[in-house]
Amino acid sequence: KNQVEQSPQSLIILEGKNCTLQCNYTVSPFSNLRWYKQDTGRGPVSLTIMTFSENTKSNGRYTATLDADTKQSSLHITASQLSDSASYICVVSGGNEKLTFGTGTRLTIIP
Amino acid sequence: GAVVSQHPSRVICKSGTSVKIECRSLDFQATTMFWYRQFPKKSLMLMATSNEGSKATYEQGVEKDKFLINHASLTLSTLTVTSAHPEDSSFYICSARGTGPGQPQHFGDGTRLSIL
Q: What is the overall mean pLDDT for chain B?
């Protein structure tokens, strides 16, 4: 069964600090992996996308990594800001382009 | 680019009424649109996939007579929750995917449905 697991479920950090979110998946075959940011009451917004051959992808203060061998990905947020408070969802696309969603990490940045 | 507009953003109505939610791709043509439901603190759950001009494909456990989906054009899909009841209260999100292989899904901002 295709699954995407994320950890931690929730995280609280001080403004300005860095943090790393984890994603493990068992989706096969694998097409690509995306990290989304979802603000409360809004739809998900794509941060990064990585295919099988890509190990890292950056988007501003967001850096995603992918290890296709161990089927793990991480999202690193540098110098966090209050506006980073949101849910971060790891989404894996399989061979049929069907998406498998992780349950998300709820990140709270406190001043 | 790739903007998906969902309307309304919030709706409150009485039990027994039907509610229509619209999903539009504003600057691209979407041959495929998806409808998701999201419960509090949970991730998105795919309800159905709709392709322009054909019947929607529903996921297991989703009642097609309860959740009517129409995808009449390349830029518009609608979800109608028929005879809504309090248990249908949820956050509904649509996404649209452009033509061609490997195109990503672009998500709308969701509709908060509350049935009294």
A: 92
User: Chain B 37-96, CB below 8 Å of chain A: which residues?
Assistant: 41-46, 91, 93, 95
Residue numbers in A near B91 (CB within 8 A): 41
The three-state DSSP-derived secondary structure of A55-108 is CEEEECCEEEEEECCCCEEEEEECCCCHHHCEEEEEEEEECCCCEEECCCEEEE
Chain A neighbors of B30, CB-CB under 8 A = none
pLDDT band at B1 (very low <50, low <70, confident <90, very high): low
End-to-end CA distance of chain B: give it in Å, rounded.
37
Question: B11: pLDDT confidence band, cut at 50, 70 and 90?
Answer: very high
Q: How far A6 CA sits from the closest chain B CA (Å)? A: 11
